[in-house]
Write a structure and sequence with these properties.
Helices cover about 30% and strands about 20% of the residues. The protein has about 400 residues and is α/β, with parallel strands linked by helices. The longest helix has 18 residues. It binds nicotinamide-adenine-dinucleotide. The site of nicotinamide-adenine-dinucleotide has 23 residues, from loops.
């Protein structure tokens, strides 16, 4: 089997995904790389044996020697770049979130439908051990029918990662309840077996609004992601423009009646996601979210607090980025480009997570008023449900 020839657009922090895709002789090879920033291109391109190195992604689209592209540029650029790639007939791996607006997502989905070019959205959490384990437990009926899902997201390095560059700007992300939460909203949908139809939310910029910022146009500081500052109030060198929230809480009603909640804080000391799913016959909760950590199930009772639980499941060992999720998702992407068909990730689900995060952000900025999620054209849903055939 010939290697799938991949072009990569955007060689920033997410470069590890592209490095995982560069496996000459083992299924996929990066043959072209692009970054609009010449300094980034100069530093990173040599990590691949790419034949084509360019600052203009349109050059990749003209090359007959590229089967698929991975788009890893900032969120606000996704709509334009994905549509151009799809129209050029290149299968697309588009990083999450699909876009920063619902309209942008729908335009991408419609272009994939009209061109017939394969579209895959990089919701790698669906390939994370903890998420797959929780889903298996639910699918096997161990906690009965899921009725409510509660997620707490503690983002310890939030001030370093999300408030020192474009992530801090509404114009580039809409907000972190979309940018960051798109992952978990997608997982909530997957675990609960439905999509959000109505949301409300509250949130605020509590801590990072008043800390020292960099001048516009100055690069992110050296070591900015290795030398985390603690406590969060000592963080400096923040982005020149900050108007997204650092604390947000949202409530969701899903189309199958499930009620869910998601909470995010960017100045917690520890980084972890904590999920609770309560079904008609039990409850699960994860304690840690990496390989070797535990998902506990209580499905007898009623009792008082019990640390020992009824069943403890170990999150399997895994190698590779994001707890093994990155190699897992790339494997699925390569298979999908070759054969098409249904995948564990879903472009429709990717749109639904953006839609919930987007409308929750509107609610948050409107005093918590509930908002309905705009529906998606059923013809598009049917096309993607058929595996884009
Ligand atoms: N799935 C995950 O776990 C995960 C993790 C991190 C980031 N992401 C997503 O990956 C994407 C990239 O994030 P990042 O942290 O690497 O951002 P980044 O800012 O570190 O890197 C983005 C790169 O894209 C380049 N770029 C911008 N516009 C371009 C254009 N028009 N053409 C070519 N290059 C362009 C920039 O010069 C930069 O080098 C984002 O959408 C982000 O949300 C996903």
């Amino acid at each position: 089997m010939e290697d799938l020839r991949i072009g990569v657009i955007g060689l920033g922090l997410r470069i590890n995904l592209a490095l995982s895709a560069h496996r000459p002789g083992k299924g996929s090879v990066v043959t072209a790389v692009c970054d609009a920033d010449p300094a980034v291109l100069d530093k990173q391109a040599k990590r691949f044996e790419a034949k084509l190195v360019t600052e203009d992604y349109r050059e990749l689209l003209d090359s007959p020697e590229i089967d698929a592209v991975i788009v890893m540029t900032p969120d606000d650029t996704h709509e334009r770049i994905a549509i151009d790639c799809l129209q050029a007939g290149k299968a697309v791996y588009l990083e999450k979130p699909m876009h920063i607006t619902v309209e942008g997502c729908d335009n991408i989905l419609r272009t994939a439908y009209e061109t017939g070019t394969r579209l895959y959205v990089g919701h790698n959490m669906r390939h994370m051990g903890v998420v797959r384990l929780m889903r298996d437990i639910i699918v096997k009926g161990v906690i009965g029918e899921p009725k409510t899902v509660w997620v707490r997201h503690f983002v310890s390095y939030g001030g370093d990662y999300y408030f020192k560059d474009w992530h801090a700007e509404r114009g580039r992300t809409t907000g972190l309840l979309l940018q960051k939460a798109a992952h978990d909203i997608d997982v909530v949908h997957w675990l609960a077996g439905g999509y959000t139809t109505r949301v409300n939310a509250l949130g605020d910029l509590m801590l990072y609004g008043d800390l020292p910022r960099r001048e516009p146009g100055t690069p992110r500081p050296d070591g900015w992601l290795h030398e985390f500052e603690w406590p969060p109030t000592t963080r400096k060198n923040l982005n020149h423009h900050i108007d997204v929230e650092d604390v947000s809480v949202m409530n969701m009603r899903l189309d199958n009646g499930v009620i869910a909640a998601y909470q995010q804080c960017h100045f917690s000391p520890d980084y972890v996601r904590n999920y609770t799913v309560i079904g008609t016959e039990g409850r699960l909760e994860n304690f840690g979210d990496g390989p070797g950590d535990t998902v506990k199930v209580w499905n007898t009772g009623p009792t008082g607090y019990r640390d020992d639980c009824d069943i403890a499941y170990k999150i399997p060992d895994a190698e590779g980025g994001h707890g093994g999720a990155d190699p897992g998702i790339l494997g699925e992407f390569c298979r999908f480009v070759r054969d098409g068909g249904v995948t564990d990730t879903s472009p429709v689900a990717a749109r639904m997570s953006v839609a919930a995060g987007y409308m929750a952000t509107m609610s948050l900025r409107d005093g918590g008023t509930p908002y309905d999620i705009p529906p998606l054209d059923p013809e598009l849903i049917a096309y993607f449900d058929r595996g884009q055939r």
